[in-house]
C-alpha cells in the first residue's frame, strides 16, 4: 500500500479536500433538526485516501449516546447536503463517531482539580 508523502501534491490535495469538507460540514451540522437538548461540535474528520469514506468526529455537551444516534439517523440528510455543496464525482459514505479525546480531557481536568483541592486543604 502506497502512503502519501507529506510534501507530495496528492497529500496537499487530500488536506485541501478535508479542510473543504470540514468547512461545509460545520454548516450542514447546524441544519440537522431535532438536537435542541445537545450542542454538537465538529471536532475532526478523516477522509479515506480514495475519498470514498468520511469519518466525522463529533463532541456533545451532554446526552452523547442519544446525540450520536440522532446524527447517525440523519446521515442521509447530511450526505445529500454534502453532495449538493461539493464538486466531486462521488460523495463519500459518512460515519459519525464520538470524539473520545474531549471526554478524556474533561476527566483529566476533574482528576487534577480534585488532587489540587486535596493538596490545598
UniProtKB/TrEMBL annotation:
One of its GO terms (biological process) is rRNA processing. GO terms for molecular function: ribosomal small subunit binding. It comes from the Bacteria. GO terms for cellular component: cytosol. Keywords: Ribosome biogenesis. Pfam families: RBFA (PF02033). This is Ribosome-binding factor a.
